[in-house]
Structure formats: C-alpha cells, structure tokens
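Same chain as my last thread, 193 residues:
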Amino acid sequence: MNRVVVVMAAVLLFTVACAADVFNYQAILNGPSESPPNASAGTGFATINYDNVAHTLAISIVFSGLTGTTTASHIHCCTATSFTGTAGVATTTPTFAGFPLGVTSGTYMTTLDLTLASSWNPAFVSAQGGISQAESLLASHLGDGKEYLNIHTSVVPGGEIRGFITPVPEPATMTLVAGGIVGLLGKLRKRKA
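reply #2:
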C-alpha cells in the first residue's frame, strides 16, 4: 500500500511538472503606474503567456479611455527595483507588429516567436549577447515586477499607461493537487506509526 501511495504521488507530481511549460502573467495598465505618474483616465489589461518549450510569448491587450492616440506599445525590461523605475524596450520596436495606432481604445493579440530577431529590440539583444540570452533575461524576470507593458500616446509620448507584469494567481486546481498530496503523505505517515 505504501508503494502505491508513493507511486501515485510521483505520477501526480510528474504530471503537474510536465504541464508547467506555459507560465501565465498579467498586467493592469494605468497612468499612475507610469514613471513619472500621470492623471490619465486610460486603463488597460494584458495577459502574457510565456511558453519555455515553444519559446513564444503570447500577448493579449485591451485598453480604453486614453487621452491621446496610440503611438507605440511594447514590453520594457528590467528595472533595478520591482514596481518602480524605467527600463529599456525589450520587445519589438518601435511597437508590436500590428498594434492599433492612432486610437484611444482597442484590443490586440499577438504571439512573439522569441527565437526570431524580429520579436526583439536589437539593442536589447545586443546588450544581452544574443537572442537566447535575451530570452533568458526576459523569462527570469517575468512576474517579479521588473518588466512592464507600456502604451505610448500622442499626449504622453513617454507612456500614457503601463502595468508591471505579475503572475496570474494560482488556479484552485493546483491547490487541490497540493492538498491531495499532503493528505496522502499524512496517511502514509500514520500507517508507519
């Protein structure tokens, strides 16, 4: 019986580990999060999904209420301190390909192939020593508050709204899996005693 419990726990952990190739993040964009902060009534929300096996970054953005019309949008990396300061542009410059320009609201979806030079700011890649090093740096700071998504406009050229990239809260199923493993291990411990 003890071996069955251990094998079940191992299979469950292996299954969870195999499914952990896509990492989910989000960013809530607004004017007060800019540096320097501004009073824009504009807001936005983005999801960023990083796949470390396919080497892709899927980005989905919705925004509205901007004071000016859009001129650019991209991801910046990496500030010295979490949730504050500024950093250079890491992704496509001057803007994501196909991002809606000249508007005050809109939606956008893209998937960047991080193995391609066209997905990056050439200066960022050069500073890191190559594309794979640029991806490593970007991936290592996703979710730690040192990268942000910025939308620039005609009224606020330095960025009207931005949001630091943070992890999406853990799904309830992961909590249930962890609770099940703890319960199985507890039962195993009781039987040994």
